[in-house]
Amino acid sequence: MSEPIFPESFLWGAATSAYQIEGQPLADGAGPSIWHRFAHNPGRIANGDSGDLACDHYHRYRDDIALMSELGLGVYRFSIAWGRVLPEGRGRVNQPGLDFYRRLIDTLLEHGIQPMPTLYHWDLPCALYDRGGWLAPDSPGWFADYAELVFRALDDRVPIWITLNEPWITAMLGHLDGSLAPGHRDLFEAPQVAHHQLLAHAAAVAVYRGVGRHQIGIALNLEPQHPATPSDADRAAATRQDLILNRWFLDAVLCGRYPDELPGLFGPAWPEGAELELVGAGIQTDFVGVNYYSRGLVSAAHQAPAPYVSRVPPDPSRVTAMGWEIHPPGLTEILCRLKDDYGNPPVYVTENGAAFADPPPLDGEIADPERIDYLRTHIRAAHDALRAGVDLRGYLVWSLLDNFEWAEGYAKRFGIIGVDHQTQQRIPKQSARFYREVIRSRGASLVPGA
Ligand code: IFM
Using H for helix, E for strand and C for coil, what is the string for 104-124? Predict the structure, then answer.
């Protein structure tokens, strides 16, 4: 067997989010979220699915943590449902909701697994949506108040916090493309929602500096944008997509400002005064969480109307069940870019994984060689970045369990542990066994010939 290739301090984990796995979204006094409302709006979700039961993790979390422990996970990323803690989004605290997360965290700690909670993974309380949601100028303050409450309750047992998951997605798919909650299609809303989320992150970090003692960061969906051909037009298109997909949030979070070219892309939809407000917010982060799945291949001929992002359809022989191109070097590239262009901040790969059409279980196990190949090549790509000097601290698979994949419902399976959503039975996949061995050997099992 080869020598370990990842440092002992490297954190290995898996990630999930509240609405995607917990189920019982209204249990014990919780307030409804925009995802609860959206999923119950006919026609929004494939097969009419919803998160009503999901993986029933709300009741089965102890068994799920036992599975994490068998895998050898060092860290578990989950999200806190804002409306479980504050049913109206602000004001009255729902103690049973807070107690659920305290029990979850304590059980993780009993198993030697570090909790990495995300404060917001898309499930905004309806009560706040009805007051304007992320469009409301008060929204950063609502978030900071919620964050403070949770920090005060749980920071004594939480070493790593994440403020927001993928604010780009909320802005662009929730408010411009309309495929995700709240399902709006309005060019003027998208940059406003993004801006308020960035101010919310800044406000929560500022609060954390006063009441918290550990690390706090943000999880961004990032992907390199490559020109489909070397032509000037395709290169310009790729640069534009990179600005919208990557630099928008990276420059904001790591440099405290918006790229100069960004307001021009949105034209009159750009919120007036946003640049100065962002500088004034003194935004900071202790680390960046990188959620990486694919790259974008961009051609001027395939451009959608500004500022929307569109891609050249990938080679169908190299895609996951989501239709996303499998491109492991893109992970190395985006991680190295953080080092080269942004001063090498601490980084975690907070999500990486793939949906495939898994076969039915055979002898109690699901054979998923495509997922194993995806994970193997991407973990190697993460290692390439580490070797190149990136300050990479950990890697987390998306996802621990087959779960509610938003508008796709349960049809798209990302788990390394299968879930039969009729019986709630957890079914091991071979990728879980593969990942356990990677963790146990600290990557030695990835070395060719090992
Ligand atoms: O399931 C999502 C997750 O909630 C956010 N990042 C991407 C995953 C796969 O689409």
Answer: HHHHHHHCCCEEEEEEECCCC
Mean pLDDT of 276-295: 98
- Where would I find the H helices in 243-368? 248-250, 262-266, 274-281, 329-342
Atom of ligand 1 nearest to the CA of 353: 9
Give the model confidence (pLDDT) of 312-364 as tens digits: 989 999 999 999 999 999 999 999 999 999 999 999 999 999 999 999 999 99
> Using CA positions, which residue lies closest to atom 9 of ligand 1?
405
HEC secondary structure over 186-233: CCCHHHHHHHHHHHHHHHHHHHHHHHCCCEEEEEEECCCEEECCCCHH
* Distance (Å) from CA 311 to ligand 1 centroid: 19
Distances in whole angstroms, Cα of residue 355 to Cα of each of 95, 350, 371, 418: 36, 17, 8, 11
Q: Before 182, cis peptide (omega within 30)?
A: yes
